[in-house]
Design a protein that fits this description.
This protein has helices spanning 42-55, 62-70, 76-85, 110-121, and strands at 2-11, 21-23, 26-28, 90-100, 128-133, 146-157. It has 158 residues and is an alpha+beta fold. It has a single domain, classed as 2-Layer Sandwich (60s Ribosomal Protein L30, Chain: A), CATH 3.30.1330. The strands form 2 sheets. The chain has a 4-stranded mixed β-sheet with strand order 1-6-4-5.
Length: 158
Amino acid sequence: MIAAIGQDSHRFDIGNTQKKLILAGVEFEGEAPLLGNSDADVILHAITNAISGISGVNILGKISDDLCLKEGISDSSIYLKEALKTLKNHQLTHISISIECQKPKITPMISKMKENLAQLLNLKVCQIGITATSGEGLTAFGRGEGIQAFVIVSAMPL
């Protein structure tokens, strides 16, 4: 078995009414979006980074910039799918996600997020763990300035 960690964070884009807040590919209605060239889905970005830790192929950077800025693809699930292609000799077996933010409230959306991730990652819902914390206001994320996600992925050789 092999494991890798991924992280991502974005600040809120207050006042932007053109974008939606997307986390784990799920839209959070009535919430401020995150600032970024793409949809700024910190969870999918952290998963993509963790997969890069296994495959050694960095997707977020030149590849995602080309997809986003040159081809106009801002959906982070596309970046995740590109990362999954690099796992040639491995299959994901489990994913653990830790989210830090003061807002939005994550718990009511965990089931929907896990279902969407299971579909994207070809996993069972029981193979995905999601926890959330406010961090007691000790960081910018806990003070409501943005969202941070840490992810650990486990994979087995095929």
